[in-house]
Amino acid sequence: MLNSLFQKKNICFICNSSVTSFICSRCSERMVFYQNLRGRCSFKKWDLHFTAPYHQGYKRLIWDLKFGKNTGLAKGMAYLMLECYLKNIDRLPDLVDYVPMGRIKEKQRGFNQSKILAEEIGKLINRNIGNLTKREDQVSLYRNRKVDREVLVKDTMCAKSGDVNKSILIIDDVYTTGATIRETMRALRVKGFEKVSFLIFARQEKQENLENWFS
Ligand SMILES: [Zn+2]
User: How far is the CA of 113 from the centre of ligand 1 (A)?
Assistant: First the structure.
């Protein structure tokens, strides 16, 4: 059944080795190992769930989705994200949402990869998308390496009012410094939301950690 979720059959989604299931046993073991280390952490009592390191096959998936515009990958990625998330929670969120992109940036790319992941996750757990937050376009983070990312991102988001008693799960593709997540938290807090958690596909790690864990 799971194989029908994926475009290429009989190939590990992560390392491309030929297997009978969508993810090979080696990648699956590594993922469990990583999730034991980094799977869940809390920031101001709002949980962050991480599916994988931003590394090797996981990094490639993000690139193919984002820049290769291979949006067909989102379903499989959503499945991996949920598998990690469901191990750590007692009850499902009421709403699924995503980290927004600026309007101009989204128009240039043609889509927001976090929104696509959120939609796939929403379908799998039968939850609606909240569309609670908006973001202003900002100066490219890459062209401003010298400027603190935190400063660039600060006050670029705002949230709509909504039922603050609902629990919301926010989806994002990559966690780098956490500045964007903190800004999303700020926007939601301002509107009084209290039950918010985050599910992120990949987390950037220090090279030395990656070498220790995955060599
Ligand atoms: Zn594999």
Answer: 23
Ordered by where they begin, the domains of the chain are 40-214 (3.40.50)
User: Which are the contacts of 202, defined by CB distance < 8 A and separation ≥ 6?
Assistant: 50, 51, 52, 53, 54, 55, 58, 59, 62, 173, 174, 175
Cα(11) to centroid(ligand 1), Å: 8
Distance 48 CA to ligand 1 centre (A): 25
- The string of pLDDT tens digits covering residues 82-103 is 998 999 999 999 999 999 999 9
pLDDT, tens digit, 9 for 90 and up, residues 143-182: 656 667 777 777 789 999 999 999 999 999 999 999 999 9
CA of 122 relative to ligand 1 center, distance in Å: 26
